[in-house]
């Protein structure tokens, strides 16, 4: 395309291309067509072997190229072979919600059934399944973990497929440890661990350690407890990889110019760009749109769409809609489109080589989202978003040498770089008391573990013996939120303000209730001021919610007030779910009236634990108010450590709420 780019050493492969390079490009029109497509996928040749291995082995590890058909086909093979007979369910987990929804709809389409009937999905706060009817269920690994609280042996499932296991999310790791335990109690349960980029050997070793029961010589009943490994050879279509000749100084700019260059020089086909987060994605959308217009072509046919988890569902769905004739879609995404997703029109992938990753420091108790280099496994997954329905090209914004010599093979498992509070409470609720002795696929650090135990103790979730308290600990574990927020909900029941607290908890569960991208920052700030409460962001959320209800849940009202309508609809939905959970666990639903207090301060704050210097985020309604004592929901790190979603408090509330944790004298000595 230009001298800037160098083709990778990997030779382009011959494409098994009977229909002119576009095997399944246009949408399939009928069932017969879909059947033909299914049979062309590499995994189809392995159908019998897969079914045989699953029949005979407790655990089967399946490694196959991206796009070879693992996610969409294997659950269907299992169903066809009878694994969903007699009311049993085949589960397939994904690390991300978007992937769950999109593969579930694809499989429902392939099977010619309505989504939510034979094929369904469950993600947090959304259950699209029909008990007794659903045979194949896609779900996030986090949701499957939560299901274990009510059904510890996951008895309704005959086969559980842990897909994209290379991602090693916290929930995947906990699940792997727990499923290994369950297998000893339920030898009839079958596990499939699948990915395009997993180290099959270490996974197989994990399932083969002495703790699994080996089948004694001569035993005929039951599966072989040693795991089987199957490698699915072959892939969809060829993807030519290109690297930059020299390292790029600014991946955002490089991504923008690569998109424009592709648009100028390459044949039609959509482009998928991987950047890191909402900020750089919004910036890229703007730059590409502006530069495209500056080139003087009024309608060059580019449709630029962002994709990240905080985006409302309707906007996320736009990326899946067919690209109109004569147009070229450019989807600029975080790594939520990195695994499992098929975007039909995508021919070109542009990989920045970076993603936002969570890094937790247990000493300071600060969890940062940091832009960091991706692993080879991620790079391969990104490349694999092309070549699924026709040949493609992948432009890597790093050199081939960097890829070969410096990129790590796999990322660090999330459990080794995260705050462990939610993980510890879940394990405790499942009766795993010796958490350090748990059979982890990768052990978490003991500092993070101690810190999590300390937080849970401070919340009154754990007692002096580190056991879940009754009823508080068990109640908090039942609420599908961060334990700090769950504690807030629980306490609000006693304080007579649970209706308000549930609204706040629902609002904190979504990324933002404000729109971004319309008008100027000044206009947005002014709109926020209409709702600002002196106590801070949390109480301001209540004002927005109240206004929304008073408007009759109107989208025009949202538009006028810079409030995101889709986000508010989500708040209503989550709120309903939380109310039901609250009722189930005995929280009294009650509303309250409120008072206001606020005082001034110089803008710099210190955390009580760790004395870290932190500041109020400019998006907060308290940004210029600076009350003396504040409580924050989360910290983000850019040029400074910023507190997001902040509320003004009286320090005596801390000693009142957690006298076992906060000492009055210590707090007094911190006032400066
Ligand atoms: N929504 C879709 N539209 C068109 N084709 C699709 C769609 N989803 C899947 N396919 C086709 O099915 C193939 C297999 O997809 P599947 O997700 O099962 O592969 P996979 O092996 O699980 O890939 P990955 O490892 O990337 O998740 C794709 O390569 C594509 O040809």
TrEMBL record:
Pfam families: AAA_22 (PF13401), HA2_C (PF21010), Helicase_C (PF00271), OB_NTP_bind (PF07717), WHD_HA2 (PF04408). Its EC number is 3.6.4.13. It catalyses: ATP + H2O = ADP + phosphate + H(+). Residues 255-431 form the Helicase C-terminal domain. It comes from the Eukaryota. CDD domains: DEXHc_DHX35 (cd17980), SF2_C_RHA (cd18791). One of its GO terms (molecular function) is ATP hydrolysis activity. Residues 51-216 form the Helicase ATP-binding domain. Keywords: ATP-binding, Helicase, Hydrolase, Nucleotide-binding. InterPro entries: AAA_22, DEAD-box_helicase_OB_fold, DNA/RNA_helicase_DEAH_CS, HA2_WH, Helicase-assoc_dom, Helicase_ATP-bd, Helicase_C-like, P-loop_NTPase. This is RNA helicase.
């Amino acid at each position: 395309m230009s001298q800037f780019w160098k083709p990778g050493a990997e030779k382009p492969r011959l494409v098994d291309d009977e229909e002119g390079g576009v095997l399944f490009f246009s949408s399939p029109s009928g069932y017969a067509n879909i059947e033909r497509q299914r049979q062309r996928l590499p995994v189809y040749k392995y159908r019998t072997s897969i079914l045989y291995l699953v029949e005979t082995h407790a655990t089967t590890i399946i490694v196959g190229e991206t796009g070879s058909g693992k996610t969409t086909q294997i659950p269907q093979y299992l169903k066809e072979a009878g694994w969903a007979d007699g009311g049993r369910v085949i589960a397939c987990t994904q690390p991300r919600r978007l992937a769950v929804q999109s593969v579930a709809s694809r499989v429902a389409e392939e099977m010619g059934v309505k989504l939510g009937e034979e094929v369904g999905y469950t993600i947090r706060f959304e259950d699209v399944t029909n008990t007794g009817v659903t045979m194949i269920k896609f779900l996030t690994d986090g949701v499957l973990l939560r299901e274990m609280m009510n059904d510890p042996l996951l008895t309704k499932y005959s086969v559980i497929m842990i897909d994209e296991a290379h991602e090693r999310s916290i929930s995947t790791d906990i699940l792997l440890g727990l499923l290994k335990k369950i297998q000893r109690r339920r030898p009839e349960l079958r596990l499939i661990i699948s990915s395009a980029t997993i180290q099959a050997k270490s996974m197989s070793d994990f399932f083969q350690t002495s703790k699994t029961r080996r089948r004694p010589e001569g035993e005929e009943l039951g599966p072989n407890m040693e795991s089987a490994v199957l490698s699915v050879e072959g892939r969809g279509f060829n993807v030519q990889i290109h690297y930059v000749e020299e390292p790029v100084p600014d991946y955002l700019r490089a991504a923008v110019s690569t998109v424009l260059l592709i648009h100028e020089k390459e044949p039609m086909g959509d482009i998928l760009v991987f950047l890191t987060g909402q900020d750089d994605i919004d910036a890229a959308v703007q730059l590409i749109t502006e530069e495209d217009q500056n080139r003087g072509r009024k309608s060059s046919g580019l449709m630029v769409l962002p994709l990240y988890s905080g985006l409302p569902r309707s906007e996320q769905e736009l990326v899946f809609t067919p690209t109109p004739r004569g147009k070229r879609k450019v989807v600029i995404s975080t790594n939520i489109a990195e695994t499992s997703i098929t975007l039909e029109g995508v021919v070109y992938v542009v990989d920045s080589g970076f993603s936002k990753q969570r890094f937790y420091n247990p000493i300071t108790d600060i969890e940062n989202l940091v832009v960091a280099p991706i692993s080879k496994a991620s790079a391969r997954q990104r490349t694999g978003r092309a070549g699924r329905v026709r040949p493609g090209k992948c432009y890597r914004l790093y050199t081939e040498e960097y890829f070969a010599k410096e990129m790590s093979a796999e990322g660090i498992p999330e459990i080794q770089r995260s705050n462990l509070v939610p993980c510890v409470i879940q394990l405790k609720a499942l009766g795993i008391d010796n958490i350090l002795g748990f059979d982890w696929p990768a052990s978490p650090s003991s500092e993070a573990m101690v810190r999590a135990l300390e937080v849970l103790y401070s919340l009154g979730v754990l007692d002096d013996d580190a056991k879940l308290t009754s009823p508080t600990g068990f109640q908090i574990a039942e609420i599908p939120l961060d334990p700090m927020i769950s504690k807030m909900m629980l306490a609000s029941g006693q304080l007579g303000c649970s209706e308000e607290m549930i609204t706040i908890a629902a609002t904190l569960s979504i990324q933002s209730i404000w729109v971004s991208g319309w008008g100027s920052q000044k206009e947005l700030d002014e709109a926020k001021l209409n709702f600002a409460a002196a106590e801070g962001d949390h109480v301001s959320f209540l004002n927005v919610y109240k206004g929304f209800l008073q408007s009759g849940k109107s989208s025009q009202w949202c538009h006028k007030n810079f409030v995101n309508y889709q986000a508010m609809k989500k708040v209503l939905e989550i709120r309903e779910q939380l109310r039901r959970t609250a009722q189930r666990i005995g929280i009294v639903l009650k509303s309250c009236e409120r008072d206001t207090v606020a005082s001034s301060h110089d803008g710099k704050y210190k955390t009580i634990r760790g004395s870290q210097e932190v500041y109020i985020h400019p998006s907060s309604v308290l940004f210029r108010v600076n009350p003396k004592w504040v409580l924050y929901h989360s910290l983000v790190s850019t040029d400074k450590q910023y507190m997001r979603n902040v509320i003004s408090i009286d320090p005596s509330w801390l000693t009142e709420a957690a006298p076992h944790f906060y000492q009055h004298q210590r707090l007094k000595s911190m006032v400066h």
